User: What shape does this take?
Amino acid sequence: MNYIFGSMKIVFIFLSLLFIQCSCASDHSEKHKEPAEEKNEHEEEIVKLTQEEINEFGIEISTAGPGKLEQHVDLTGEIVIDPDRLAHIFPRFPGIVKEVRKKIGTPVKKGEVLAIIESNESLSPYEVKSLIKGEVIDMHLTRGEVIADGDHTFIIADLSKVWVNLSVYQKDLPDIQLGQKVYISAGPNTKEIEGKISYISPVVDEKTRTATARVVLNNSDGYWRPGLFVSGKVIIGDETVSVFVPKTALENFENRTVVFVKHKEGFEPQPVTIGRSNTKAVEIVAGLKPGQNYVSKGGFTLKAELQKEAFGEGHEH
Amino acid sequence: MNNIIQFLLKNRLLMLALGVLVLAGGYYSYQKLPIDAFPDVSPSLVQVFTVTEGLAPEEIEKYVTFPVEATMNGLPNLDHIRSVSNFGLSVVNIYFKDGTDIYFSRQMVNERLQEAREQIPEGFGDPQMGPISTGMGLILFYYLEDTTGQYSLTELRTIQDWLIKYQLQTVPGVTEVLGIGGWEKQYHLVLDPNALLRYDITVNELIEKVKANNLNVGAQFIEKNAEEYIVRSVGLASGIEDLENIVLKSEDGIPIYLKQVADIKIGGAVRRGVQTRNGIQEVVSGQVVKLYGTNSSTVIGQVEEKMKEINNTLPEGIRIVPYYQQKTLVQAAVNTVTNALLQGIVLVGLVLILFMGSLRPSLVVAIAIPFSILFALIGMRYFGISVNLMSFGGLAIAIGMMVDGTIVLVENVDRMLRESKDDETRIHIITRAFREVSRPIIFAISIIIVVFLPLFTLQGVEGKTFRPLAYTVALAMLGSLLFAIFLAPVLSSIFMRKPKIKDKTKTPKENFLIGKLLKVYQPVVTYFVRKRMPAVVITVVLMIIGIIIFPQLGSEFTPTLQEGTIVLRLTMAPSISLNESIKTTQIVERRLMKVPEVMEVITRIGRGEVGAHTDPINSAEMYVLLKDKSEWRSARTQAELEDVIREEVGNIPGVLANFTQPIQMTVDELLEGVRAELAIKLFGDDLETLKKKADEIAAVISRVPGAADVQPDQVSGTPQLLIKVDRHAIARYGINVEDVQQVIRAAVGGETAGQIFEGVRRFNILVRFAPEFRNTPESIREILVEAPNGIHVPLTQLATIEEIIGPRQITRENSQRFITIQCNVVGRDIGSFVKDGQKAIEQNVTLPPGYLATWGGQFRLQQEANKRLAVVVPITLLIIFLLLFSSFNSLKNTLLILLNIPLALVGGVVALWLSGQNLSVPASVGFIALFGIALENGMVLVTYLNQLVRDGVSLDEASIKGAILRLRPVLITALTTALGLIPLLLASGVGSEVQRPLATVVIGGLFTSTILTLLVIPAIYKWFAVKVEYSEM
Assistant: This one.
């Protein structure tokens, strides 16, 4: 009888084992990594890639060295006529226009007769002459018209030189200085001309809260028409820095800015301190020495490889 | 019983008619049953998606996810709610209790969604429910092939979205067609901010103008003579030219046109998903989603038909190319089991003929198979079980058992007919034979049904996988019982005859094979009965072997179902850009193409139209299409090929690659469960604190002995450009926060300003700054904001702009944020590990108020399952015991029969060990089936022995005689069952890996249990014989 109960017991043990065993099962074999993986931290942060992989992933390597770091500020503004080269012509006496000699757009010389007006007072005609050499850009008289007191008849402007008034926002004021180089253009993909800041307004406009920076442009071909809306790229810094890298070389790794440096063993992230920068490049103040080989493009692949262990969680089974 | 059998034999025609009715009903049901590859293990789940273009996880959570979650709380049958707030997408998964009707739950969710919509701020998206489908619903993927090379990706996507999609959606059973890849066409108004400044126009004014110059109206009708003329005014912009000439303002009669400030062109919408092919190109692709509960193979068939039709209407050179379809899988899976089923039937038939020695009784027995199967099919339709690998697998397993009841009856009839006197009528003999065995048959089959009871209590994925099997086995056995009781006697009376030459010897027709076997068996069994001790020794030895081997078996969950499609899943860094993601993916694709067996690689990166996938862009799924198997050179099997591919792909810098399968992948995503044994979920409010505390917990846990792979979720890692509006600064200029943000949104993200209609196709008009004015932090700083007094202020004067690392996604469960810390346990019991871990956390980590750590993971499920089984298994055994006891009315007999169980187990264990398989859920199912069969065999023999004893034969003699006479039925039932399973054991097709352990266990167990039945039971019967009846003689 004992034997029978023994066998019954075994049935139970078997049954319970069976279910416990299979329900406790899991993919031990796949999940467990070797403890040997816990190497020292330094070694962990080196990525090894074959030359093929470097090519495949478009990783570019450059040598750290000096470079010219050009910093600029983009401003907008408009072309205005140089007040020194503008003349408003007023007839001296009211009268009737007898003759109009010039049309809008006609170039005139200094002292050249523009129109002849018969004075109401003296009833004798007198000549209206240009005060400057330039071009008629506007006129308000036709033959037979009565010119009253104070009506201006001609605007003569010399457009061989024009001004660019650039609006300088508050935030940019500290950067803008006299003599800075400016590239002026009237829109993307149009002609660009170089100029210099010759004047900065000492006051800021109360309404627009902008100051004005002036650039004088040579306009012998008449391309820079007054009224034209232009943008100006002011070069505010143009220094040669000792270590200069493109922005594509910078990666954010573990909340630090790093540059991947190439050793014999592989690539290693190296925290760097950034100095001045422009839209494309930065100056490295510390962390990268001249002559070191670094990844100038494609560092993301290296960073991803280092983070692989972490981001894979939840997907690898 | 007497009345029944007499009634049956009197109304033979009626019984036959009823039988035919069942057959017809079964066939009809088969026609109507949905066919799937596998049982659908998806949870009862309704997904709510909200697309909110351009919003970061934090905002999505606040404005969208929370209202949706909050309104869903308290739904009937709700199990739990889990949500993920990603960049631009909120997904709320509302899990219902298993078995909740999908339409009911959707209706409930929809009602509450109305409420949620009201709480979501204007312009933050509209929550939508996912397709009425499950993880098995993605039945077909295709891409568009353009042989001419003239069509742009935008044009192809337009063809997909407006031509193919709508036509495919008309196919019955298709609930959704989701497009991905290429570019969704948009009209882009690319603004030049300097031009806006020049003409003094703000972005908002521009958007208003565009909207105001793009509409049609109706103005009722006028009467003209006796007729009505409908008045309509057409002012919709029809294309680029109309847009270009929209007048923004007019200065001194000089109009300023839109084209003066913006470049207007056709472009692509912002995309979060791409489809690439072979490492050389991007393609446009679509995914067909099947409606819940429809027949996969029918739907796929109809979709293919429709595709042919559509192909004819597509522009020259464009073709729909399906690259993944479940049909092949469904076919393969169904083929595997149907083949096994058919081969099983043939084998069983052969056994019958061999052992019964004549065709007529074999025929009666064989009819039991189709009857039982078709009966099961009726039941399947009733219970809503689809035809799939598991449900048909159940039938295949049951084949050998279906015939058992009938075999016992027919064998008895056959023997009695042979032994009968001349004057006894056939009907009478059958009645007598029926009476003798009907009780054991009913009890034996009932026991087989009962042993499958524990399977019905399995939960979760295992439950969903194996319940169909339990159902079909139980149904088929019920069918076979009905057949054995109601039809077999009738059919026997029709088909079976008394042997013609019966006066020569007593058993002239005694089968040759049985005769041979008997010659061997008789002396052996006699020896065992006389000596007894050897039988005990054999039993004990077998048991010891079993006990030694059992702990050596490895264990695993359900073996993975091979779907026959290789998917390589890439996971890249969470911060990756889409372009980098495409570049990396294409590198991997090119490496894959170097494998000679690979024909094509199609990859989905991220997500397309929402509904099926919610992957971020750092995730790519590569469908590897293989050449025909005959062209394979470097590998023979899929597993080998995976190794070859792994080798070729190698380690990809910055990429994690692992193999998965389409359905598995989708289902995993829906289950969203934690795969590690142990998961500590830390609930709390503040993301930073959560992360910090999770790291602390991880550090503490990893010091607990036995901890392995401790890993907290990586919740952060997405770089953000955070623009914080400086309230003092905007106050100085009189600007509102909203003004600043509107400019940021329109300038950087883009703002929709109406739509362009091309027929019924509609395309958004997107207003956005030209790239050079918005795509770097520097240029964003320069964006000008207009103050009420008309002056322009650069953004950087109004706001601080910083680059930070933000959360990549925010996960919540039951309305609380949480982080998971996963962990496995090696070399010790999980229960004690959890206790130690809890103590360690208590001592070393101080959680702020409102923070809570819970322990979960697979181990929790296992504990629950064990608890359940700890109740169910003893109950099952108790029922079996009661059945046996009420059948024999003797405790001893019952125990003798129960002795079969451990010996059968030994065989199963040894078979698993020999074949190098693990103890898995299917193997357990095999053991369960084995119990039933072993008990059945034992019952048949013991019943007969009892009868002999009752007839007055001495115990020893009865043991020997009974054993000899029952050799044939015991062998036949054992062999039919075993041979019925042989095809499953040898099958190599799709799904065979699930059935194989089961078949192994049953076949192995049958071997030992048959030995027991034939040798040990007669030998030790004496000790268990029923005393009362013995004394009666």
